[in-house]
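Hi support team,

I submitted a single chain yesterday and got back a structure, but I'm not sure I'm reading the token output correctly. Could someone confirm the output below corresponds to the sequence I sent? I've pasted both exactly as they appear in my results page.

Thanks,
R.
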Amino acid sequence: MPRTLAAIALFAATGIVAAGIGVGGVLLVRHVQGNQPVANSPTEGPGSSSGAGEARALYQQATTATAASAGFHYVAVSTGGAAQTIVGDAGHTGGRQAITFDASYGTEQFTLLLVGTTVYFQGNTPAVEDQLGVVAASAASVEGKWVSVVSGDGPYSVLQPGITTSSQAGEMPLTAQSTARVTVGGVAATRISGIVPAGNNQPAGTGYLDITPSTDLPITYSSTISGAGVVASFTTTFSAWGTAPSVSAPTGAVAWSSLTTATPPNGFGSGGGATPVPTPTATPGAI
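Hi R., thanks for writing in. Yes, this is the structure output for that exact sequence:
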């Protein structure tokens, strides 16, 4: 839930410690679940709530179906604390994410590709500094370039999670308690409601997962947490089920290990927190 790390640092400034959930995923669910008003938002329809046992079973079926899918498209948005948007395409072994969020470095914009076990990063200067730890004096020269990040590299554990179908399936945390019939965009759906457990330095909250009854595949996952008078909402919408993304390694990528980097004060991808970002001590490299 790497992307959440940024959310944690920024929400902490307002009294809320949140790890974005979904792409996740920025959460320890890189999926920062955000509450984006989406067209055709679900509305309660006729029907009665059912028991927690059925809710737990349906939730398990939904996460299993998500992980088993050949692929899907998703959009995750957060509001109320630190604005963040993740647009992604997940597959079994690879995928892509385009991420935008506000940090103390500035508005970060970057793209991630997972090809095999390598993550390829391309972003603007604020993202290069925060996500990759490239020192300020060199960051502008790395902006827009593809950078390969492999296991063992400093930012890898923050950038890699949340991109595959199985990883995304884990970014919908929910202790299911009840189900009800709802209508989403004029289509019948099942809403699984419950508690979003506290953890990863985030308080407990409430959430729901809307699924298609015939397939158990998610339509929308939404959660809300609050504290210190601030309400943070996270929403992820899913589509294009069964569509596996086609991703390939970009040409001309430079290795992260060749860059002049230093671990950011609050860690890679932390957003820098609410205080000014001190200039890190550089580790000599090729760029």
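A quick pointer for reading it: DSSP finds six helices and 13 strands in the chain. Let us know if anything else looks off.

Best,
Support desk
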